[in-house]
Every structure is written in C-alpha cells, then in structure tokens.
Write a structure and sequence with these properties.
- It is built from 15 helices and 31 strands.
- It is α+β, with helices and mostly antiparallel strands.
- The strands form six sheets. Strands 1, 4, 5, 6, 7, 8, 9, 10 and 11 form a nine-stranded mixed beta sheet that branches. Strands 12, 13, 14, 15, 16, 17, 25, 26 and 29 form a nine-stranded mixed beta sheet that branches.
- The longest helix has 17 residues.
- The radius of gyration is 24 Å and the shape is globular.
- The structure holds oxalic acid (OXD) and manganese (II) ion.
- Manganese (II) ion (MN) binds next to loops.
Length: 596
C-alpha cells in the first residue's frame, strides 16, 4: 500500500503535510507482517543498531545514546488551547507557538531516512472500547517495538477509510542524514530540542528528538493515557494507569481486579504473580494500562489497550517475576540498555544468572568488579503479551472483562496499613487523589515528605487533575452503575529497624484473597477512622512465618501518623485551587473528624 492509495482526505492531507516538511528519502506503510518485522530487524543488525542475540530465540539487543534513556517529563507538554486546562501538574505550551516551532524543527528532519507510517489499534481491532492511531516515525526501532506493543496492520487504514476516528501521532528522532552525515546506532537530538507534546483538543501527539520508550512509542503513555484520558472525560469512560488481573478462587469463582501504582512499584510483578496460597490462580490481562467502559449491566468492562509488555529489566528474576522471565525466554523480544553476555545472552542487575564477564549498556567490558551497574536502571524488555504463560485466555475479548475491585497503592514505609477498603466510592476517590510515596531525596529535610501521585496519573493525565477527580466522582454517580469496590494497599511498610513488615511477591495473594471475599460482602472487616481493615484473624496468614507484632503493625490505625499527614494533604489539595471538587475537602474534613 502507498500514500496515493489512501482516499480519506483527513489522513492523506495530514500524511502529505509531514512528508513534505520532513523530506524523507522514502515512505513505507507498515503492514504489521512478520516479514516486514524481520526485514527491519535485519536492516538494524546490518547497520549496527541491533545485535541479534543467541538466546532467547529471535530476539535483539540494542543500546541507546546515553542521553536518551527514559521518559523526559521536563520536556513533556500539554498544548491545550487554554493554559488553565492543562492544570498545575502538567507543563504547558501555547499550541500555535509550539506548532510554529515544530515547523522549523521538523523541516528536513528525515533527510536521508525512511518515513514509516504505522497504522495501529489500541485494543483488539473489533472492540467497541478500542481506538485507532497512525504513527509517523523515522525510527525503525520504533516500528518494531510498536509491532509488539500494539496491533499494527493496514486493516486499521480500512477502518479509517470507513470513517473511524484516529489519533495523529508524529515522531522524529531529529537526526537528519543530510550531506555526508554518517548515521549513529541510536540517533536522537540534544535535550533542549526534545519535545513530547500533546494537543488534546486535536487528539494529536507530536514528539521530537527522543527514540526511547514512552517518548517515542506513542501508543503507550502519550495516546493510551494522556490523550485517552481527555477522550474518556469527554465520552464518559476511563483511561487509567492500571494493571488488570484475573483472580480465580479455589472454588473456581472469577473476579477481575485493576490496580494503579506509580511507576516502579511492581505493577508487572503483581499482574503476573504466582500466588503462595493453595488453590488460588492469578492470570494476566494487562500490566500497565486499563481502558474501561460501562456495559449494559452497569459494570465497568476493561480492556488492555496494549499487545505487549515494555517492562523494566533490572530487578526482574525468577524470584520477583517468574512469569515475566518465562515470557521473555520464549523469544521474540527486544532488549534495550541491558548488558550482554559473551555467549550472546542478556543480563541485568538481580538477574538469576551469576554475573560474569559482560559488555555493559555503554558498550564497555564489564566484570562484577567494575563497580558500576551493567544495565541501565531503566533498561527494558519489549515482549509480546500473548506469549506470557499466565495470560488469561480472554485477554483479547473485545467486550473486555468486568472489574470488581480497584486497588491503589504507593511506597509507604510508615502510617499506611497493608490493606484498607474505602468506606464508599467518594472515599475511594479521596484515597486515589491522595496516593503518595515517600520521597527518597538525598536532601535530609525532604526525607519522609510525601510525593503525591494521584491515581498514579501524575505524569500521564492529559488535562487539569482537579477535573480528573471530578470525572471519577461523576463515574460514581452514573445511574444503575455497579461500581468496583476501592482498596488501598501498601506492600512496603517497614518496622522501626527498617525491615519490610510484609514479604510481598506471591504472598500479596493473601491480600487479594481478602479483597476477593470483601467483593462478595464477606463479614471480614472492621470499620476504622480510615476505612475498613481486616477484622482480627481474617487475613489468611496460614503457612506464613510472620511475627505477631509485625502483623499487628501492618493492620493498625496509626492515628498520630495520619494526623501528621493531614497538613501535607491540605498542601497537596491547595494546588488544584477552585478546580478541586468540594467533595475532596469534605472527605478530608470527615477524616479529621474521625481521627478525633
Ligand atoms: C512505565 C511507567 O514505563 O509507568 O510504565 O513509567
Ligand atoms: Mn506505567
């Protein structure tokens, strides 16, 4: 297929505008085929961008430029028409000024390169919850990652030709090959030229200068969260930074749970967890993002809009996440910024294999005595979700799965108990709005201070966060809704001597069991000032070697601790000014009153 075959004038005009501006040597429309994927990987092997691994099978290794290793929140903007609509948690740029700047930056930015057109679907192509996008990019690395992370194919162009709306996603690494400029293994632009921008009113994304992860794979954070959160607000659904898991009890009863945790809190681990309690089964629907719409029965139905996992490699092992390791080991994966072993495999910190002689992510010889990390801490694997051994058979069901519970959480050493059920929906929204982790700042004055990350959406909400809280409250008022129950969990509580009070990993299934039973209205809770906590003896700790005093600390209400947190919540809420829904302040006042 060629651009000249496209008849939809909106799509054709948009494509032609960028082709004319970027001046690529060639234009290729991606078809999502294995042949095209293999050909692009092969080309990157020959150009020196990729190394074909000896293991796992059909897998590749690549290393980025050392200045292009993660999402750049400082260079991420919401370009809404009015600044106040971006809110206090986003950087903002005037859309007209930003577009004018792009006219200059993109001029000739693809000289000497191929411009790829990637038609993709977020979610199964035929699902009423899914949405389509077209990403333009000059990075073959982006193309092959998008082929794993989304559903790519010309069938999406047919849908658009038939009238389906689509999100416009424009990307360039910003490294033209004009004159006799030689290419480099990881082309990118200097940080002051990097821009990850979102035009919410136009449902459009423009990204310049970075080839890494969420900056460049535009289906993920840019579309599925920032733009989709705006679409969800306008259309009455939810786009959330949540994993989705399927929980089956020993009696065969099934419930689906969606959970929001800030980045680096173990979402992928929880989504693929192996329960330690006999008879329970966890299967995966998604590990990062959930899109949810009300079904005719009033329940919220969720899909995972992605088709792959873009997981953090360091820390992933047979202990922390055996099913992620099994998924990767089935092959067909791309490893970015991990170390590489001399026998052609990959390695990262906390890998199950003993560290030996390696080449580190900066292409330097490495041994355990090197004294530096072999893999970049944000090294990633990109791997197809469908080959996860515990993927639920219904993970691609177009109608989605009905959600019974939402879990929220953060990393809290103190105060927050292991599990706490919201008193009602509005209280649950308050819990989401006040999600926080302790800062780990080197600055001593900062230690113990909370970094609030409402609903784990701080860097991902495409509009004013106060309006986003309002949207959650509105969802709760929908006539006939059968809403999920809301829980707050904390796997990271520590004792005074610093030890973790809770073993985590597979033992988190004990908390899931309690949540499951509460969703069936089991009388296993006691009402406290902060919500419903497990009644004495109702959290299953059979076979767990945990001191009674640790268990007591995990399930207590630390009244003094909560009182000390209240002023920080007040400060956090003050940021949202008059867009903070009144219900949130009422919830805070009610909490204060209950604490006495
Ligand atoms: C991610 C993130 O990469 O949340 O998923 O940062
Ligand atoms: Mn994430």
């Amino acid at each position: 297929m060629q651009v000249s075959d496209i008849t939809n004038s909106n799509l054709k005009t948009w494509l032609q505008k960028w082709i004319d501006l970027c001046e690529p040597t060639d234009v290729v429309i991606c078809d999502g085929s294995k042949a095209q994927y293999d050909q692009l990987c092969n080309m990157m092997v020959k150009s020196g961008a990729f190394i074909k691994l000896d293991k796992p099978a059909n897998s590749y290794h690549t290393r980025s430029d050392k200045t292009d290793v993660a999402r750049v929140e400082d260079r991420t903007y919401i370009c809404s028409a009015r600044q106040e609509d971006a809110g206090p948690t986003n950087h903002w740029k005037d859309p007209k000024e930003m577009r004018a700047e792009f006219d200059v930056l993109f001029k000739g930015s693809m000289k000497g390169r191929t411009l790829y057109v990637i038609p993709f679907s977020m979610g199964p192509i035929e699902s009423p919850i899914s949405k389509y996008g077209i990403e333009i990019t000059d990075s073959p690395y982006v193309v092959v990652n998008m082929c794993i992370m989304t559903r790519v194919g010309t069938a999406i162009i047919k849908k658009i030709e038939a009238g389906a709306p689509f999100v416009k996603c424009m990307h360039s690494v910003g490294y033209p090959l004009d004159g006799d400029t030689a290419d480099v293994p990881w082309p990118s632009a200097p940080v002051e030229k990097k821009y990850i921008t979102h035009f919410p009113e136009d449902r459009e994304i423009i990204s310049f200068g970075s080839g890494y992860g969420g900056n460049a794979l535009l289906g993920k954070k840019c579309f599925a969260l920032r733009i989709a959160s705006v679409q969800a607000r306008d259309e009455g659904w939810m786009a959330e930074h949540m994993l989705i898991l399927k929980l089956t009890s020993p009696k065969g009863e099934v419930k689906y749970v969606a959970a929001a945790f800030p980045s680096a809190c173990g979402k992928t681990n929880l989504a693929m967890m192996e329960p330690s309690i006999p008879g329970w089964k966890v299967e995966t629907i998604g590990d990062d993002i959930a899109w949810m719409k009300f079904g005719p029965d009033g329940q919220l139905y969720a899909i995972n809009p992605e088709a792959g996992f873009f997981g953090v490699a360091p820390g992933t092992s047979m202990k922390s996440n055996p099913n992620a390791m099994r998924t990767i080991n089935r092959g067909n994966s791309i490893f970015t910024n991990t170390a590489i072993t001399l026998d052609g495999g990959v390695w990262w910190e906390d890998h199950d294999d003993k560290p030996a002689q390696l080449v580190d992510w900066r292409r330097r010889p490495w041994t355990p005595a090197s004294g530096v990390k072999a893999a970049h801490p944000n090294a990633r694997f990109t791997t197809p979700a469908g080959q996860c051994p515990v993927i639920a058979p219904e993970w691609e069901d177009p109608k989605g799965v009905p959600i019974s519970a939402f879990l929220f959480g953060g990393r809290r050493k103190t105060v927050v108990p292991l599990v706490n059920e919201a008193l009602d929906w509005e209280h649950g929204v308050f819990l989401g709005a006040t999600m926080a982790s302790e800062t780990t700042a080197a600055n001593l004055a900062e230690v113990g201070k909370l970094r609030f990350d409402p609903f784990a959406m701080l860097p991902f909400c495409g509009y004013h966060m106060g309006d986003y809280f309002k949207h959650w409250l509105k969802i709760g008022k929908k006539a006939g809704a059968k809403l999920p129950k809301i829980f707050y969990v904390n796997w990271f509580r520590r004792g005074e001597d610093g030890h973790f009070l809770w073993p985590g990993f597979g033992d988190n299934s004990r908390v899931l069991e309690w949540v499951f039973n509460r969703c069936n209205d089991a009388p296993t809770a006691r009402k406290t000032p902060i919500g419903y906590l497990p009644a004495e003896g109702t959290l299953n700790v059979k076979g767990l070697d945990i001191p009674a005093s640790d268990l007591k600390d995990l399930l207590e209400v630390d009244v003094q601790g909560w009182k000390a947190v209240v002023p920080q919540i007040e400060e956090h809420f003050a940021k949202f000014g008059d867009r903070l829904p009144k219900e949130m302040m009422q919830q805070l006042e009610a909490l204060k009153a209950r604490l006495g």
